[in-house]
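Weekly puzzle thread! Below is a chain. First person to post its structure in token form gets bragging rights.
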Amino acid sequence: MADNFLEKHYEEYEARKAAYLRKKKHLPHTSHPIPERPEDEAL
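Winning reply:
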């Protein structure tokens, strides 16, 4: 009935995913400093 239906949709998904990842690489990174965790206060 639908020859290669899943294969076609998977290829389209892979193309969208690749485009998204390419675009994501060019976005500026915002760095938020990770607050240092205090020593275990229970000890």
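Puzzle host: Confirmed. Bonus trivia for everyone else. Residues 5-25 form the longest helix (21 residues).
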